[in-house]
Protein backbone atom coordinates (compact mmCIF):
# COMPACT_ATOMS: atom_id res chain seq x y z
CA UNK A 1 0.00 0.00 0.00
CA UNK A 2 1.56 3.34 -1.02
CA UNK A 3 1.88 6.04 1.64
CA UNK A 4 -0.87 8.66 1.71
CA UNK A 5 -0.36 12.40 1.96
CA UNK A 6 -1.58 14.04 5.15
CA UNK A 7 -4.05 16.18 3.17
CA UNK A 8 -5.77 12.96 2.05
CA UNK A 9 -6.40 11.31 5.41
CA UNK A 10 -9.79 12.89 6.16
CA UNK A 11 -11.42 10.42 3.77
CA UNK A 12 -9.71 7.44 5.42
CA UNK A 13 -11.15 7.55 8.95
CA UNK A 14 -11.06 4.09 10.51
CA UNK A 15 -8.51 2.79 8.01
CA UNK A 16 -4.93 1.79 8.65
CA UNK A 17 -2.65 3.95 6.51
CA UNK A 18 0.99 4.85 6.04
CA UNK A 19 2.56 8.33 6.05
CA UNK A 20 6.08 9.60 5.47
CA UNK A 21 7.56 12.94 6.41
CA UNK A 22 9.53 14.81 9.05
CA UNK A 23 9.20 14.94 12.82
CA UNK A 24 8.71 18.63 13.55
CA UNK A 25 7.92 18.12 17.20
CA UNK A 26 7.18 15.47 19.82
CA UNK A 27 6.56 14.94 23.50
CA UNK A 28 6.26 11.92 25.69
CA UNK A 29 4.42 11.19 28.88
CA UNK A 30 6.14 7.93 29.77
CA UNK A 31 3.83 5.37 28.22
CA UNK A 32 2.34 7.63 25.51
CA UNK A 33 4.34 9.36 22.78
CA UNK A 34 2.92 12.21 20.70
CA UNK A 35 4.66 12.67 17.36
CA UNK A 36 3.97 15.75 15.24
CA UNK A 37 4.52 14.88 11.60
CA UNK A 38 4.60 17.13 8.56
CA UNK A 39 4.86 15.87 5.02
CA UNK A 40 4.56 18.99 2.88
CA UNK A 41 0.81 18.62 2.40
CA UNK A 42 -0.10 19.17 6.04
CA UNK A 43 0.56 18.34 9.68
CA UNK A 44 -0.82 15.59 11.85
CA UNK A 45 -0.32 14.08 15.28
CA UNK A 46 0.45 10.39 15.72
CA UNK A 47 -0.27 8.94 19.14
CA UNK A 48 1.80 5.91 20.12
CA UNK A 49 1.46 3.84 23.27
CA UNK A 50 4.23 1.61 24.58
CA UNK A 51 1.75 -1.23 24.84
CA UNK A 52 0.90 -1.19 21.11
CA UNK A 53 4.33 -0.81 19.54
CA UNK A 54 7.07 -3.45 19.12
CA UNK A 55 9.69 -2.84 21.83
CA UNK A 56 12.55 -1.92 19.46
CA UNK A 57 10.34 0.62 17.64
CA UNK A 58 9.30 2.16 20.97
CA UNK A 59 12.96 2.46 21.88
CA UNK A 60 13.81 4.14 18.57
CA UNK A 61 10.87 6.51 18.96
CA UNK A 62 12.23 7.64 22.31
CA UNK A 63 15.57 8.47 20.68
CA UNK A 64 13.89 10.54 17.97
CA UNK A 65 15.28 13.97 17.15
CA UNK A 66 13.61 17.01 15.59
CA UNK A 67 13.51 17.08 11.77
CA UNK A 68 14.44 13.42 11.37
CA UNK A 69 12.71 11.85 8.39
CA UNK A 70 10.35 9.02 9.30
CA UNK A 71 7.79 6.56 8.01
CA UNK A 72 4.79 5.69 10.15
CA UNK A 73 1.57 3.74 10.01
CA UNK A 74 -1.58 3.87 12.07
CA UNK A 75 -5.35 4.10 12.09
CA UNK A 76 -6.96 7.43 11.22
CA UNK A 77 -9.40 8.83 13.76
CA UNK A 78 -11.10 12.16 14.37
CA UNK A 79 -9.13 14.54 16.57
CA UNK A 80 -10.40 16.61 19.49
CA UNK A 81 -10.95 19.72 17.38
CA UNK A 82 -13.85 19.31 14.95
CA UNK A 83 -12.50 18.64 11.47
CA UNK A 84 -9.10 17.56 12.78
CA UNK A 85 -7.62 14.09 12.55
CA UNK A 86 -4.90 12.06 14.19
CA UNK A 87 -3.33 8.64 13.89
CA UNK A 88 -3.38 5.79 16.35
CA UNK A 89 0.24 4.80 15.76
CA UNK A 90 0.92 1.16 14.74
CA UNK A 91 4.49 1.31 13.44
CA UNK A 92 7.45 3.66 13.42
CA UNK A 93 10.50 3.66 11.16
CA UNK A 94 13.35 6.15 10.74
CA UNK A 95 14.47 7.09 7.23
CA UNK A 96 17.30 9.27 8.53
CA UNK A 97 17.97 10.30 12.11
CA UNK A 98 18.96 13.98 12.33
CA UNK A 99 21.63 15.06 14.84
CA UNK A 100 20.61 16.73 18.05
CA UNK A 101 21.51 20.26 17.05
CA UNK A 102 18.77 21.30 14.61
CA UNK A 103 19.70 24.97 14.19
CA UNK A 104 16.21 26.44 14.30
CA UNK A 105 14.69 26.10 17.74
CA UNK A 106 11.58 27.34 19.42
CA UNK A 107 13.30 30.42 20.78
CA UNK A 108 13.21 33.70 18.87
CA UNK A 109 15.88 34.03 16.19
CA UNK A 110 16.98 37.26 14.52
CA UNK A 111 16.21 37.81 10.81
CA UNK A 112 19.86 37.51 9.74
CA UNK A 113 20.24 34.15 11.43
CA UNK A 114 17.01 32.89 9.88
CA UNK A 115 18.06 34.11 6.43
CA UNK A 116 21.42 32.33 6.82
CA UNK A 117 19.37 29.21 7.61
CA UNK A 118 16.86 29.86 4.84
CA UNK A 119 17.34 26.32 3.45
CA UNK A 120 16.01 24.96 6.77
CA UNK A 121 13.80 27.91 7.74
CA UNK A 122 11.62 27.11 4.70
CA UNK A 123 10.38 24.05 6.64
CA UNK A 124 8.80 26.08 9.42
CA UNK A 125 5.04 26.38 9.39
CA UNK A 126 4.89 30.09 8.57
CA UNK A 127 7.27 29.76 5.66
CA UNK A 128 5.42 26.73 4.40
CA UNK A 129 2.15 28.68 4.50
CA UNK A 130 3.67 31.62 2.60
CA UNK A 131 4.92 29.39 -0.21
CA UNK A 132 1.50 27.77 -0.52
CA UNK A 133 -0.17 31.18 -0.88
CA UNK A 134 2.49 32.18 -3.41
CA UNK A 135 1.66 29.08 -5.43
CA UNK A 136 -2.05 29.96 -5.43
CA UNK A 137 -1.25 33.49 -6.66
CA UNK A 138 0.81 32.07 -9.54
CA UNK A 139 -1.91 29.59 -10.50
CA UNK A 140 -4.68 32.19 -10.26
CA UNK A 141 -2.68 34.41 -12.62
CA UNK A 142 -2.30 31.65 -15.20
CA UNK A 143 -5.98 30.73 -14.86
CA UNK A 144 -7.16 34.33 -15.27
CA UNK A 145 -5.09 34.96 -18.38
CA UNK A 146 -5.83 31.62 -19.98
CA UNK A 147 -9.55 32.27 -19.58
CA UNK A 148 -9.14 35.59 -21.39
CA UNK A 149 -7.08 34.51 -24.38
CA UNK A 150 -3.71 35.78 -23.17
CA UNK A 151 -0.89 33.56 -24.48
CA UNK A 152 2.09 32.81 -22.25
CA UNK A 153 5.16 34.19 -24.02
CA UNK A 154 8.65 33.68 -22.61
CA UNK A 155 10.81 36.78 -22.82
CA UNK A 156 14.63 36.80 -22.63
CA UNK A 157 16.65 37.39 -19.49
CA UNK A 158 19.88 38.37 -21.24
CA UNK A 159 19.22 41.63 -23.03
CA UNK A 160 21.22 44.27 -24.93
CA UNK A 161 19.37 47.28 -23.43
CA UNK A 162 17.54 48.59 -20.37
CA UNK A 163 13.75 48.45 -20.09
CA UNK A 164 13.32 50.55 -16.95
CA UNK A 165 15.97 52.83 -15.40
CA UNK A 166 19.53 52.53 -16.71
CA UNK A 167 20.85 53.10 -13.19
CA UNK A 168 19.51 49.78 -11.90
CA UNK A 169 21.03 47.41 -14.43
CA UNK A 170 23.06 44.31 -13.73
CA UNK A 171 25.74 44.32 -16.38
CA UNK A 172 28.10 41.67 -17.71
CA UNK A 173 30.57 41.12 -20.54
CA UNK A 174 28.99 39.22 -23.39
CA UNK A 175 31.61 37.53 -25.59
CA UNK A 176 32.54 39.76 -28.57
CA UNK A 177 29.27 41.68 -28.45
CA UNK A 178 30.09 44.06 -25.63
CA UNK A 179 27.78 44.38 -22.62
CA UNK A 180 24.69 42.37 -21.78
CA UNK A 181 22.18 43.24 -19.08
CA UNK A 182 19.88 41.11 -16.96
CA UNK A 183 16.24 41.85 -17.82
CA UNK A 184 14.37 44.32 -15.62
CA UNK A 185 11.03 43.40 -17.23
CA UNK A 186 9.96 41.47 -20.31
CA UNK A 187 7.66 44.27 -21.41
CA UNK A 188 9.39 45.46 -24.58
CA UNK A 189 9.55 41.92 -25.98
CA UNK A 190 5.96 41.30 -24.98
CA UNK A 191 4.98 44.35 -27.04
CA UNK A 192 6.52 42.65 -30.07
CA UNK A 193 4.72 39.41 -29.23
CA UNK A 194 1.23 40.93 -28.97
CA UNK A 195 1.52 42.19 -32.53
CA UNK A 196 1.54 38.45 -33.32
CA UNK A 197 -0.73 36.87 -30.70
CA UNK A 198 -2.88 39.84 -29.64
CA UNK A 199 -2.73 39.29 -25.88
CA UNK A 200 0.21 37.88 -23.96
CA UNK A 201 1.80 37.54 -20.55
CA UNK A 202 5.20 36.47 -19.33
CA UNK A 203 6.31 35.26 -15.91
CA UNK A 204 9.89 35.07 -14.86
CA UNK A 205 12.76 36.35 -12.76
CA UNK A 206 13.84 39.95 -13.32
CA UNK A 207 16.74 41.83 -11.85
CA UNK A 208 17.23 45.30 -10.45
CA UNK A 209 20.53 46.51 -9.08
CA UNK A 210 18.55 48.64 -6.64
CA UNK A 211 20.71 50.26 -4.03
CA UNK A 212 17.61 50.56 -1.83
CA UNK A 213 17.60 48.56 1.36
CA UNK A 214 13.90 48.64 2.17
CA UNK A 215 11.23 46.17 3.16
CA UNK A 216 9.94 46.28 -0.44
CA UNK A 217 13.04 45.76 -2.58
CA UNK A 218 14.72 42.63 -3.84
CA UNK A 219 17.50 42.54 -6.45
CA UNK A 220 15.98 39.42 -8.05
CA UNK A 221 12.22 39.01 -8.10
CA UNK A 222 9.48 37.42 -10.18
CA UNK A 223 7.52 39.63 -12.48
CA UNK A 224 4.42 38.93 -14.48
CA UNK A 225 4.08 41.31 -17.43
CA UNK A 226 0.84 41.40 -19.40
CA UNK A 227 0.25 43.21 -22.68
CA UNK A 228 -2.70 43.57 -25.06
CA UNK A 229 -2.98 44.99 -28.57
CA UNK A 230 -5.84 47.45 -29.14
CA UNK A 231 -6.19 47.96 -25.36
CA UNK A 232 -6.21 51.51 -24.05
CA UNK A 233 -5.47 52.90 -20.60
CA UNK A 234 -9.05 52.26 -19.38
CA UNK A 235 -9.00 48.64 -20.52
CA UNK A 236 -5.58 48.24 -18.92
CA UNK A 237 -6.91 49.31 -15.52
CA UNK A 238 -9.88 47.01 -15.85
CA UNK A 239 -7.66 43.99 -16.51
CA UNK A 240 -5.49 44.80 -13.48
CA UNK A 241 -8.54 45.16 -11.26
CA UNK A 242 -10.04 41.87 -12.43
CA UNK A 243 -6.75 40.03 -12.06
CA UNK A 244 -6.12 41.24 -8.51
CA UNK A 245 -9.72 40.43 -7.47
CA UNK A 246 -9.34 36.95 -8.95
CA UNK A 247 -6.05 36.33 -7.16
CA UNK A 248 -7.41 37.40 -3.77
CA UNK A 249 -10.60 35.40 -4.31
CA UNK A 250 -8.62 32.23 -5.08
CA UNK A 251 -6.36 32.68 -2.05
CA UNK A 252 -9.42 33.15 0.17
CA UNK A 253 -10.97 30.02 -1.30
CA UNK A 254 -7.89 27.78 -1.15
CA UNK A 255 -5.67 29.03 1.64
CA UNK A 256 -7.87 29.71 4.69
CA UNK A 257 -5.67 27.51 6.87
CA UNK A 258 -2.46 29.15 5.66
CA UNK A 259 -3.90 32.63 6.27
CA UNK A 260 -4.85 31.52 9.78
CA UNK A 261 -1.30 30.27 10.38
CA UNK A 262 -0.04 33.67 9.22
CA UNK A 263 -2.58 35.40 11.46
CA UNK A 264 -3.68 37.39 8.42
CA UNK A 265 -6.70 39.64 8.87
CA UNK A 266 -8.97 37.89 6.39
CA UNK A 267 -11.66 40.58 6.62
CA UNK A 268 -9.21 43.04 5.06
CA UNK A 269 -8.74 40.69 2.08
CA UNK A 270 -12.48 40.17 1.72
CA UNK A 271 -12.81 43.91 1.06
CA UNK A 272 -10.67 43.62 -2.06
CA UNK A 273 -13.54 44.11 -4.51
CA UNK A 274 -14.06 46.20 -7.64
CA UNK A 275 -14.20 49.11 -8.08
CA UNK A 276 -10.80 50.01 -6.67
CA UNK A 277 -10.11 53.57 -5.56
CA UNK A 278 -8.91 55.72 -8.44
CA UNK A 279 -6.91 58.92 -8.01
CA UNK A 280 -4.95 60.98 -10.48
CA UNK A 281 -1.39 61.71 -9.48
CA UNK A 282 -2.43 65.35 -8.95
CA UNK A 283 -5.23 64.25 -6.60
CA UNK A 284 -2.90 61.91 -4.76
CA UNK A 285 -0.37 64.72 -4.26
CA UNK A 286 -3.15 66.96 -2.90
CA UNK A 287 -4.23 64.28 -0.42
CA UNK A 288 -0.66 63.51 0.58
CA UNK A 289 0.13 67.17 1.25
CA UNK A 290 -3.00 67.40 3.39
CA UNK A 291 -1.70 64.36 5.28
CA UNK A 292 1.62 66.07 5.96
CA UNK A 293 3.85 64.88 3.10
CA UNK A 294 6.19 67.41 1.49
CA UNK A 295 5.74 65.83 -1.97
CA UNK A 296 5.96 68.37 -4.82
CA UNK A 297 3.36 68.60 -7.61
CA UNK A 298 5.58 66.83 -10.16
CA UNK A 299 7.35 64.40 -7.83
CA UNK A 300 7.15 60.62 -7.90
CA UNK A 301 5.48 59.05 -4.87
CA UNK A 302 8.04 57.73 -2.41
CA UNK A 303 7.60 54.56 -0.40
CA UNK A 304 6.45 56.56 2.64
CA UNK A 305 3.91 58.44 0.52
CA UNK A 306 2.47 55.13 -0.69
CA UNK A 307 2.23 53.91 2.89
CA UNK A 308 0.44 57.03 4.13
CA UNK A 309 -1.92 57.11 1.15
CA UNK A 310 -2.95 53.46 1.18
CA UNK A 311 -3.60 53.49 4.92
CA UNK A 312 -6.52 55.79 4.09
CA UNK A 313 -8.32 53.10 2.10
CA UNK A 314 -9.48 49.53 2.55
CA UNK A 315 -9.25 48.74 -1.16
CA UNK A 316 -6.38 48.88 -3.62
CA UNK A 317 -5.73 52.34 -5.04
CA UNK A 318 -4.94 53.22 -8.65
CA UNK A 319 -2.81 56.32 -8.96
CA UNK A 320 -2.83 57.34 -12.62
CA UNK A 321 -1.36 59.97 -14.92
CA UNK A 322 2.02 60.61 -13.34
CA UNK A 323 4.30 63.36 -14.59
CA UNK A 324 6.14 62.06 -17.66
CA UNK A 325 9.43 63.20 -16.16
CA UNK A 326 9.37 60.54 -13.41
CA UNK A 327 8.30 57.62 -15.60
CA UNK A 328 9.75 55.39 -18.32
CA UNK A 329 10.35 56.50 -21.92
CA UNK A 330 7.76 54.19 -23.51
CA UNK A 331 4.64 55.57 -21.80
CA UNK A 332 2.11 57.38 -23.96
CA UNK A 333 1.43 61.02 -23.15
CA UNK A 334 -1.99 62.01 -21.88
CA UNK A 335 -3.64 63.87 -24.78
CA UNK A 336 -5.36 66.09 -22.19
CA UNK A 337 -2.07 67.06 -20.52
CA UNK A 338 1.21 66.52 -22.39
CA UNK A 339 3.23 66.77 -19.15
CA UNK A 340 1.61 63.57 -17.94
CA UNK A 341 1.42 59.97 -19.12
CA UNK A 342 -1.38 57.40 -19.43
CA UNK A 343 0.02 55.19 -16.71
CA UNK A 344 -1.00 53.74 -13.38
CA UNK A 345 0.59 52.37 -10.28
CA UNK A 346 -1.67 50.03 -8.33
CA UNK A 347 -1.07 50.45 -4.60
CA UNK A 348 -2.10 47.72 -2.18
CA UNK A 349 -4.05 48.85 0.90
CA UNK A 350 -3.03 48.71 4.57
CA UNK A 351 0.17 50.60 3.81
CA UNK A 352 1.69 48.01 1.47
CA UNK A 353 2.05 50.28 -1.56
CA UNK A 354 2.93 49.60 -5.19
CA UNK A 355 2.26 46.09 -6.48
CA UNK A 356 1.69 46.87 -10.17
CA UNK A 357 3.08 49.38 -12.66
CA UNK A 358 1.42 49.79 -16.04
CA UNK A 359 0.71 52.14 -18.92
CA UNK A 360 -0.58 52.67 -22.40
CA UNK A 361 2.46 52.58 -24.69
CA UNK A 362 3.64 55.24 -27.12
CA UNK A 363 2.56 53.85 -30.49
CA UNK A 364 3.65 56.73 -32.73
CA UNK A 365 7.04 56.30 -34.38
CA UNK A 366 8.16 59.93 -34.25
CA UNK A 367 7.05 60.46 -30.66
CA UNK A 368 8.77 57.29 -29.52
CA UNK A 369 12.00 58.19 -31.31
CA UNK A 370 11.90 61.60 -29.62
CA UNK A 371 11.55 59.94 -26.19
CA UNK A 372 14.39 57.52 -26.88
CA UNK A 373 16.59 60.48 -27.75
CA UNK A 374 15.43 62.53 -24.76
CA UNK A 375 16.31 59.63 -22.48
CA UNK A 376 19.68 59.29 -24.24
CA UNK A 377 19.03 55.63 -24.97
CA UNK A 378 21.07 53.90 -27.71
CA UNK A 379 18.88 54.39 -30.78
CA UNK A 380 20.36 51.51 -32.75
CA UNK A 381 19.62 49.00 -30.00
CA UNK A 382 15.97 50.14 -30.02
CA UNK A 383 15.58 49.80 -33.83
CA UNK A 384 13.58 46.61 -33.48
CA UNK A 385 11.30 48.28 -30.90
CA UNK A 386 10.75 51.23 -33.24
CA UNK A 387 9.93 48.74 -36.04
CA UNK A 388 6.81 47.81 -34.07
CA UNK A 389 5.64 51.40 -34.73
CA UNK A 390 6.49 51.13 -38.43
CA UNK A 391 4.69 47.92 -39.34
CA UNK A 392 1.06 48.01 -38.28
CA UNK A 393 1.33 50.05 -35.09
CA UNK A 394 -1.75 49.87 -32.86
CA UNK A 395 -2.75 51.37 -29.51
CA UNK A 396 -1.62 48.92 -26.86
CA UNK A 397 -1.22 48.77 -23.11
CA UNK A 398 0.13 46.54 -20.42
CA UNK A 399 1.35 46.22 -16.89
CA UNK A 400 3.63 44.21 -14.66
CA UNK A 401 3.20 42.92 -11.14
CA UNK A 402 5.89 42.05 -8.67
CA UNK A 403 4.95 38.60 -7.36
CA UNK A 404 6.75 39.12 -4.04
CA UNK A 405 4.95 42.43 -3.45
CA UNK A 406 1.63 40.63 -3.91
CA UNK A 407 2.65 37.75 -1.64
CA UNK A 408 3.86 40.19 1.03
CA UNK A 409 0.59 42.08 0.99
CA UNK A 410 -1.77 39.12 0.75
CA UNK A 411 0.08 37.20 3.50
CA UNK A 412 0.40 40.38 5.61
CA UNK A 413 4.19 40.07 5.94
CA UNK A 414 6.37 42.78 7.48
CA UNK A 415 9.14 42.40 4.86
CA UNK A 416 9.38 41.19 1.26
CA UNK A 417 12.28 38.84 2.12
CA UNK A 418 9.94 36.11 3.45
CA UNK A 419 7.84 36.09 0.28
CA UNK A 420 10.44 34.44 -1.98
CA UNK A 421 12.08 31.06 -1.29
CA UNK A 422 15.65 32.37 -1.55
CA UNK A 423 15.76 36.17 -1.31
CA UNK A 424 18.43 38.18 -3.10
CA UNK A 425 19.07 41.53 -1.40
CA UNK A 426 21.92 43.99 -1.82
CA UNK A 427 23.58 42.44 1.21
CA UNK A 428 22.51 38.83 0.69
CA UNK A 429 23.34 36.24 -1.98
CA UNK A 430 23.30 33.05 0.14
CA UNK A 431 22.15 30.37 0.60
O1 LIG B 1 6.84 49.41 -11.92
P1 LIG B 1 7.84 48.55 -12.63
O2 LIG B 1 9.24 49.01 -12.67
O3 LIG B 1 7.25 48.33 -14.09
C1 LIG B 1 7.86 47.67 -15.11
O4 LIG B 1 8.89 47.07 -15.04
C2 LIG B 1 7.03 47.62 -16.36
N1 LIG B 1 7.92 47.35 -17.48
C3 LIG B 1 5.95 46.58 -16.22
C4 LIG B 1 5.05 46.54 -17.42
O5 LIG B 1 4.41 47.52 -17.73
N2 LIG B 1 4.98 45.42 -18.08
O6 LIG B 1 7.82 47.09 -11.99
C5 LIG B 1 6.62 46.35 -11.92
C6 LIG B 1 6.40 45.82 -10.53
C7 LIG B 1 6.27 46.90 -9.46
O7 LIG B 1 4.98 47.44 -9.42
C8 LIG B 1 6.60 46.11 -8.21
O8 LIG B 1 5.48 45.37 -7.79
C9 LIG B 1 7.65 45.16 -8.71
O9 LIG B 1 7.51 45.06 -10.10
N3 LIG B 1 9.00 45.61 -8.36
C10 LIG B 1 9.77 45.07 -7.39
N4 LIG B 1 9.55 44.06 -6.53
C11 LIG B 1 10.53 43.73 -5.67
N5 LIG B 1 11.73 44.34 -5.64
C12 LIG B 1 12.01 45.35 -6.50
N6 LIG B 1 13.20 45.91 -6.47
C13 LIG B 1 11.00 45.75 -7.43
N7 LIG B 1 10.95 46.69 -8.40
C14 LIG B 1 9.73 46.58 -8.96
MG1 LIG C 1 6.83 51.09 -10.73
Rounded average pLDDT: 97
- What is the assembly state of the chains in this entry? single chain
- The strand line-up of the biggest sheet is 6-10-11-18-17-16-13-12
Q: Into how many domains do the coordinates divide?
A: 2
Judging by the overall fold, what is the CATH architecture of the largest domain? 2-Layer Sandwich
What structural category characterises the helix and strand content? alpha+beta
Q: Specify Rg, calculated over alpha carbons.
A: 26 Å
Which ligands does the model contain, each kind named once? 4-amino-1,4-dioxobutan-2-aminium adenosine-5'-monophosphate, magnesium ion
Low-confidence stretches: none
Instruction: Tell me the name of the CATH homologous superfamily of the largest domain.
Output: Bira Bifunctional Protein, Domain 2
Helix content: 25-40%
Instruction: Examine the coordinates and then state which fold CATH places here, giving the name of the CATH topology of the largest domain.
Output: BirA Bifunctional Protein, domain 2
Could you tell me how far the N terminus lies from the C terminus, measured between alpha carbons in angstroms?
Answer: 38 Å
Shape: elongated
Question: What's this entry about, in short?
Answer:
With 431 residues, the protein is an alpha+beta fold. The chain has helices spanning 55-61, 111-116, 118-121, 125-147, 187-197, 233-254, 256-261, 266-270, 281-290, 303-310, 365-374, 383-387, 403-411, and strands at 16-28, 32-38, 43-49, 69-78, 85-96, 151-152, 158-159, 171-173, 179-182, 199-207, 220-229, 277-280, 317-320, 333-334, 337-341, 343-348, 353-360, 396-402.
Amino acid sequence: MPALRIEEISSHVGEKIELQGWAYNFRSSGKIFFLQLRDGSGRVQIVYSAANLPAEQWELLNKLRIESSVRVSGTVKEGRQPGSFELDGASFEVVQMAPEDYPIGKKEHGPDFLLDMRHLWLRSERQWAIQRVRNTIINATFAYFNERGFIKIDTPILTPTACEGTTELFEMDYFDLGKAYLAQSGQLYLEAAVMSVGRAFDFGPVFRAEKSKTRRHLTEFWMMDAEAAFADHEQNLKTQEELVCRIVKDVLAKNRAELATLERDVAALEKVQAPFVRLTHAEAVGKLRALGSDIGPLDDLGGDDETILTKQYDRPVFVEKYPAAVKAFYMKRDPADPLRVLNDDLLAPEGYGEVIGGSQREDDYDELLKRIREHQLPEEAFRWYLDLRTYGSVPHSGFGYGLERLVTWICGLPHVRESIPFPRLINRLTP
